[in-house]
Amino acid sequence: MTPHHNRAFRLALVLPLGLLAGYFLLLLGGQAPYLNGSTLRAELSSSTLLDAIRLSLVSATIATLAALAFAVPAGYALARLNFPGKRLLDTLLDLPVVLTPVALGTLILMALNTPPGRFLHSLGLTLPFTVAGVIAAQFTVVVAMAVRMLKASFEEISPRYEQVARLLGCSAGGSFLRVTLPLARRGIIASFILCWARAIGEFGATVMVAGTARGQTATLPSSIYLAMSAADLSRAVVLILILILISFAVLFLVRLVGGRRP
Amino acid sequence: MTPHHNRAFRLALVLPLGLLAGYFLLLLGGQAPYLNGSTLRAELSSSTLLDAIRLSLVSATIATLAALAFAVPAGYALARLNFPGKRLLDTLLDLPVVLTPVALGTLILMALNTPPGRFLHSLGLTLPFTVAGVIAAQFTVVVAMAVRMLKASFEEISPRYEQVARLLGCSAGGSFLRVTLPLARRGIIASFILCWARAIGEFGATVMVAGTARGQTATLPSSIYLAMSAADLSRAVVLILILILISFAVLFLVRLVGGRRP
Amino acid sequence: MIRAEQLRIACGDFRLGPVDLSIPAGSYLTLLGPSGAGKTILLEALMGLLKPAAGRVLLNGEEMAAQPPERRNIAYLPQDLALFPHLSVQDNILFGSRVRRLDPAASRDRLAELVAMLDLEGPLTRRDISTLSGGEKQRVALARALLPNPQLLFLDEPHSALDAGITRQLQIKLRQINRELGVTILHVTHDQEEAFMLGGQIAVLIDGRLQQLGSSDEIYYGPANLSVARFLRHQNIFSLTVAERLPDGRMRLRGELDLVCASGRDLPVGTRVAVGIRNEEVTLIRPDRPVGDDLRDNLFAAVIVDIFGFGGYHTLVVKIRESPATIELNLPNCAFRDLGLGTGDKVRISLRARSLWVLPPDDGEPRGQHSYMEG
Amino acid sequence: MIRAEQLRIACGDFRLGPVDLSIPAGSYLTLLGPSGAGKTILLEALMGLLKPAAGRVLLNGEEMAAQPPERRNIAYLPQDLALFPHLSVQDNILFGSRVRRLDPAASRDRLAELVAMLDLEGPLTRRDISTLSGGEKQRVALARALLPNPQLLFLDEPHSALDAGITRQLQIKLRQINRELGVTILHVTHDQEEAFMLGGQIAVLIDGRLQQLGSSDEIYYGPANLSVARFLRHQNIFSLTVAERLPDGRMRLRGELDLVCASGRDLPVGTRVAVGIRNEEVTLIRPDRPVGDDLRDNLFAAVIVDIFGFGGYHTLVVKIRESPATIELNLPNCAFRDLGLGTGDKVRISLRARSLWVLPPDDGEPRGQHSYMEG
């Protein structure tokens, strides 16, 4: 902003930025040699690839919707209510954000062997090597992040709006539905998009819970792993291209909605 | 905050929060049956496990320090300077945050086959199945996140401090070193801790670039994967326990420093 | 109609109260205090947005502790107005009618009445409230608050972001709402000029305590204690001792100045007191004019040591001869020009005995707190 | 010593200028304007913190475009002060000495001098600046700014967060710094009372344009155009037409009021003009007193339609008989009490011919912009 930066200082700032940009451009461009029209067409007609795309889209959408169903009330409760143990709860919900997904996935598997896990199994819920397992893994990784984001969104909305709504005649629930929720709309949509992107990209927890069964539980990231294991570079490149396009679309949509950055 | 929430509304808010807390407590507690004192002692004296711990700590520290070396000037440049193409650059640096690490790892491998990659190889840098590969993977996943965090930290510091320092006689570089950097100290430390935690937990990119060679490139998350593949539950539990302890330590330190949340 | 009894509020480190306050139906009470005095917190407790630590709030004699804010029939205009940004101007104004499910025809009539009263014909058709000017936003928020026929209207520094001309118009509207619609108003402000201009009773809140309650003149000329005096910018405050009680009931005070004062307080000889007088009440005696009877008591020779211009008036700082005391006085510009005064000039000044206020120093007990009770 | 020539600044959507302004060495110039007028942006351009879109800044006759802020020897006190939170009070004050590598002994002497002048003996020993009071922070920031012996001191609304008493003390300190240390001061404020009180020249900036430059009295009684008049809260503004030029050089104006005025402007008969007068300059004729010579010209019978009290004075709104015009006038409380006036009372008022200002309406050309040039 300030003019009169001398050239050496400006260079010391801009050079690292330029090197980083060059590095990421190299990463994005390095796949080009492996890509051509005919392999692209061939891959895009492969049924296992289409299965992976379909599974990723469906599971990420379900997992994110389920996460928001919990995160909207939970985020609002953390933003507005005071109750004993709130700080402890807050820390507990930070943990899954910091813990590696591989560990989270393993913990899901182990939890299946507890009484509540066995009860769910008796109801017909099977997670290992199933689509339900993919969804459970993505939900677990994404839900704490969703609570964080929505808490921040609700905190940005001045409580004055709700107070004024109350004095105009709304109950607490009414002021939430009529005022807070509409005002948080952009934040909720942005959280959905970013959590969905995180779910689409989820690998560690998904692999641990549901494995990488081709055509069954192989999501897009798992399919890259499988393709590279089989040294099938052209398939890997097509999968990466799809994920890059999804990522750009996500960034574009988040800016359009005007939510906070990832 | 506001009193006079009716009971049903309060329940609708607190119930999802309670269910989430219960779920994560179940995940944390579900490992307990697999844990006892003797296996803990046995595992902690295993050299492959100690190798994994050592590798994770060393590689995450180097990768994070390298990332900050780029991210401090780059974040400051994005926060304060205006230059053509800044928005494009900003989007480019958002991409690695949204893209799945599996894809990033694969892109690193493919970039090794480009002219700059071959040039680095001729200098003796080998990434596949090496510790250097682990560090490169962690650096790549973490650096864009570090730029984001530091940009936010610098943006929180009012430019007035630098302006006043300039009028008191500082050059642009002098005001950065004497004023901005000390004021950003907490933000930089918090970014270091959070990026380090992310590097410790990194799995997708590391697996793709460096593999999971036991005792050589197997980090803590990779070791969990290996242990679960070999159905060695007690080792997996010990590894998870270590990662949970690291995560709690990270959360504690970030709060102590007073930085922003993960 | 609304009454606080021994109300105490704890909010973080801040403690407010105990406050006893009663606002009769139809009155206009201004709650005046510096920022941080707890004015907003007191409003919030009366509205049920904040749970008091102790004490009671009564509305029309009925205890309110169990009543949520939506059952208190109080209208609220917060400082930031909090117009709903996702609703049009008309939907904002009708919000209260819809959530209370009032009769739509009656609400339309009420809307038309408020639109006419508040000159909202133009703004009413706007879809986006962010296109309104500051003054229009104020009037829309006022219409929204008044639509459900509230008994009470609470205003929290509604004019702090507006320029002086628009503020004046809105102040006149508020007096009109109070008189014509019969709405009882509690108006919070930190602006002394605004508090005096609104013309009703004034309650002074400083450091979480209600320090004084009275009419504009009572508050302006007779501060209840030294913190009120300082907040109300009294510049001439002296620490003196009661030396003698005169036969006519007045007191002779001695110290850095020897003064006669006509305070109604019955203070024994020897009491240390704080004495003050408003700048405008200090009289500069024109050299060519005779000294009036009421100016003879506290007549001093003095020297001008500093002069400050303030646009419409000048403030002279004068040092009393044969005393260390300095006194400030204000002169309208026309008088200042006529007299042609400069620094170093010798003047005579008089402190009218009936214009002096007298307080025991460290007057712990706030005055007038109970003087404004109902009935 | 500092001069802006045809300075234009573009900052986002905001356009400032062209500004021509020159501040002679040793002077005290107040830059007065509403928030959003561009005051801070103008300061930043003069200091080299913002690159002007066009025009020049000269310091002691030298063009500054290539000089970074650290070479301009200007001290800056921003609104938020920007005391360095990671440094102790003493390290804050000595910051300029250290980065400029000034002689430590000389800096210590300067520090002692400033500490004495600004009463900083107590605060100087503090390690944590967050423990200082608002007024102490101001004085520490002032000491830090003054330590490297600046030629110029730029202040950006330094008192906006302080209470009235502390503000007064700091204003007196600033006048002392200007006179005793010989520092040229450019003081930005939106507070009219402060601008008039500081007593130097006043530059009025509204909507990114320098509207007027002159002494307190020139600005207060003779606004250069209608936007200055409105900003300075002129309440009595009438739109009239020049009807006749009288032999004594005065003008007769007709319209909603018939007035004689003594403007120095040479306006042809038929020109539409805006005419105004300050509330305090409107004279209420006491019924028992003879009408002075200078009050005979614009004498009107009127009826009081509204009365507002403002603590120290009252504002009367009167309607002129046989005219639609209303006029506001201020009365000191003592006069108001003596007269015992109420709404509906009949009074006589006079608008002194020499107190009226006259402007061609839509006066596009700001006045006085070049009247304050060096030498």
TrEMBL record, chains A, B:
Keywords: Cell membrane, Membrane, Transmembrane, Transmembrane helix, Transport
Transmembrane segments: 53-79, 91-113, 125-147, 188-213, 233-254
BP GO annotations: transmembrane transport
UniProt cross-references to CDD domains, sorted A to Z: TM_PBP2 (cd06261)
Subcellular location(s) of the protein: Cell membrane
Domain ABC transmembrane type-1, chain residue ranges per copy: 53-254
Bilayer disposition of the protein: Multi-pass membrane protein
Membrane in keyword set: yes
Pfam families in the record: BPD_transp_1 (PF00528)
Protein name: ABC transporter permease
Source species of the chain: Geothermobacter hydrogeniphilus
Automatic annotation (TrEMBL), chains C, D:
A Pfam family this chain is assigned to: ABC_tran
Gene3D superfamilies named among the record's database cross-references: P-loop containing nucleotide triphosphate hydrolases
Occurrences of domain ABC transporter (ranges): 2-232
SUPFAM superfamilies in UniProt: MOP-like, P-loop containing nucleoside triphosphate hydrolases
Organism domain of life: Bacteria
Presence of keyword Nucleotide-binding: yes
Record keywords, A-Z: ATP-binding, Nucleotide-binding, Transport
Listed GO MF terms: ATP binding; ATP hydrolysis activity
Name under which the protein is recorded: Molybdenum ABC transporter ATP-binding protein
Organism: Geothermobacter hydrogeniphilus
